Amino acid sequence: MSAEAFIDTEKADYPVTLLCKVACISPSRYYQLSKKVVSARAAEDTQLQREIQQICEEGRGNYGSPRVHDELGKRGFNLSRKRVIRLMRVLGLKAKTAKKFKVTTDSRHTLPIAPNLLHRDFCPAGPNQVWASDITYLRTRTGWMYLAVVIDLYSRRVVGWALRPRMKASLVCDAFDIAVRNRRPPPGLIFHSDRGSQYASAKFRLRLAQASAHASMSRKGDCWDNAVAESFFATLKKELVRGVILADHQSTHSAVFEYIEVFYNRKRKHTFVDGISPAQFEACTIQMRAA
Hints:
Layout: H1 3-10, H2 16-22, H3 27-58, H4 65-74, H5 81-91, E1 130-140, E2 143-152, E3 157-164, H6 169-183, E4 190-193, H7 197-200, H8 202-210, E5 214-217, H9 227-239, H10 249-264, H11 278-290
Parallel strand pairs: 1-4, 4-5
Antiparallel strand pairs: 1-2, 2-3
Helix pairs in contact: 3-5, 4-5
């Protein structure tokens, strides 16, 4: 332990002059060294604040201290999460908070219900083995819009989505068609959803049969059976439209496209895939399998 570190540790209990004598250092030398340490710390804090500001801007204000701390580590900075919290507080930065949203599932129908093949196993061994889907609503100044998404559970990537002013079977059919065109899934794909009439419709069941996919549905009233899709919508509501009413259908479509295709799939850090984006995770998987 250095002399100044020893004095810093003990000065709460003993006079600095006495500690300087014990450490064989003059008080003026101790204060000179302490000033340098404080100045170095302040300079380091300034650099860290710039990095934190940049990370939060890249995350569009959606990252809290855990993600910021993780990214700083990847950039070569070794510091505690408490220090990150302190610096974010100084900068006035904090993650956006989530807001609860209402359920859009209409399971009061007599259409066929598929068994739950997923059983909350949200970690398939590879891509295009299990997809999850759900519907949510977005408020605009010209009326409601309904968003259906299809998520590959392997990478958490949104592989298909559709946005329409009506919540009909064609909404989920369009999202599924886009996912199939984008991914070309092999026969045997498990497609998991809730028990909504859109997913149970003859029109959508035909789509699944044409793709040689197997339908899987959550148990009645159990949102945890489709937790990944529910979580995505909670994130989207928090990060895209929290406290904002979108102008119209066209601007809503543009905003959703930019959020999903530009930010969420390609840039946003996802804790499930080791703090990188779904697209980056899939690219890493391809490289590893090719090696």
